[in-house]
Give the backbone structure.
Amino acid sequence: MQAVSPLAAYRQAVEQDGFESDAAQWHAAQQLDDCYQALQRQGSPARPVRGVYLWGPVGRGKTWLMDQFHRGLRVPARRQHFHHFMRWVHRRLFQLTGTPDPLQALARELAAEVRVLCFDELFVSDIGDAMILGRLLQAMFEQGVVLVATSNQAPQQLYAEGFNRERFQPAIAAIERYMQVVAIDGGQDHRLHPGPAQQRYWVARPGQASAVGELFGRLAAGQPASSAALELGHRCIAVVRHSANVLWCRYADLCEQPLSAIDFIALCDRFASIVLSEVPNLSAQQRAAKIARGTEDGVERVVAGDRRLPALSVHDDGVRRFIALVDECYDRRVPLYLEAQVPLEELYTQGYLAFAFRRTLSRLREMQLQRFAGA
């Protein structure tokens, strides 16, 4: 297949595929094209090539543009959701225990495997991740790895209220030195462009039968189904029903249990569709922040002292997991069917995670269109 540059791909999308022309997207496509052409001309990492950091509100086309860049590359490249990459980093660091300077070793390993890394949804909220990235990004760039990333935040906004943020400053400095930072906000959410609808969100009505019972039968298409608990690693997850390729759970059993993004990755590995029922109204007032004492960070045993924890609402721990579930389903194109107590626009209107939930809401809106997936 003939390689297509990012600028050519965007021009075709506008001129032939019905995309709305967007000045911010044109600018981003040009910056990606400059990086692409530099990589095409350069057969080795002897001379540095600047990567591209695309940031802006949800639905501005950042991921689509990055994917066109990645698709046209003719050098070794890897495209990953950022939390998938961090999962791999933590696993490899554990395997490298005892290795002198494991972060340098990891950077050399990456440089030997790929010329370009493409990250979708770069977002940092964990002190352990922040400390790792502070040195790992610098080491990767010095090894000649070119990074292209998308984010909802400018580099200076990353981990903005995080504890011990000074440990993350080297990562911000490395991004700004080795990447072209491009704001992309044409003022409209392109995920909302008209298209045939496909309902994947229902509001439960008191006294009426659940809509998702019939839905599960249709999705399972006659396959044998069971209500037995689902084994996931060392955990058992309560289910309503599951077949070979469809999972139906209650919100409390997926989002109010000690599950992580890694568990949701495993669910999307296993099931082609996920149904979540009994989703409550997730909005609630934030509670007064508590003080954490004697905290230690996740990478080095250093006493962090007292710090004020975020003012979370009563639902926010579950909402974090819900956001991770939506992110994984969206990234993997696994349709997520929801039955909730309130309409979609009212699902989360109050709480500490309001900024992060904007992306979730945009993604759930797009899931209500046929184009999201073939299901």
